[in-house]
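Researcher: Here's the sequence for the chain we discussed earlier.
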Amino acid sequence: MAVAPNPMDMDMVSICFGFSLAFCVLTGSKAARQTFGVYRRTHSLFNLYLWMIWAEGIVNFIMSIISWLFIRGNIRGSFSFFFILVSLWVVQTQCLIQIIANRVGLIMVNKRKVRIMKWTLFVIIGLVNISVYCIWIPARTGVSQTFVRINNVWDRIEKVIYLIIDGALNGLFLYLVRAKLISGGLTKYKPLFNFNAFIVCVSLSMDVLIICMMSLPNSFIYIQFHPLAYIVKLNIELSMADLISKIVRRQDRVDNPYSNSNPTELTSNPRHDHFHSKRSVFSSPNGQPTQVSHIYASKTISDSGEGEINTQNRGPGIMKTIATVVQTVEKDDSESVSSSMKQLNECRNV
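Model: Thanks. This is the structure I predict for it:
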């Protein structure tokens, strides 16, 4: 379908194109830094997270250029062009949703639920992608007015679906950070919570921007805003990854060592050399056992590195608590004092 933009449309598209290129450069530099960090530690680039962020960035860059050239009239509209455009959009949406889901999975305790969540999102987004192939391309090639009318409604619906999914995933992430980390005494994750609470508004505003642009007289202008919105979202995810990595490395004392919260990839690690915990039981003056707990953080270097969100089970860790359960029996005063002194000497030798 031919597009004849007026000067105002071209001004809007050119500004959007310029911002898209600027964010591509900024986001590419962050992705390159994270990639170099991963390769420096692992000497390998076979990392799903890295592949997804680079696929997302490259697709946004290509889509931004070809959309701008099409609106300018340098590329003619055809079935092959629209098919390529939709294919780029499929990679764009799938990768970004999986990157967000990967971040949420770091906080979830049940890794089986994480896999189910990712595959469910893949299927839902995939069904929407298939519907766009079947509706949007015929509407743009002008097969019939029926497809055009259906597309005018469905195109907005699928944008709302992405808005809801994006909001739901970020809302779940905020809830898990609050419930699993902050409420468990790991108050150093408050900056992560506050940053995500603010930045999620920016992320969702990108979806709202696309929906609003669909109401313009020129029905193709909103396509130019797709790469801008998704490159901004990708930049947000890379910034979140950097922040998570810095917080995980921070040497800190746990504020609430008695928390009953379940461990996550950000709160547990099977190795002993990162965080040490000693719980000792002494007898109080009245003969009742008293538990004293000391949990300190030692210097830690996480496996996932700066900016990397590792999907493997060897993820970063914060704390490992070793609890010793001591059973006591009724004894007379002399035996109680002798037992207490013996336990004290044993704990000093630990």
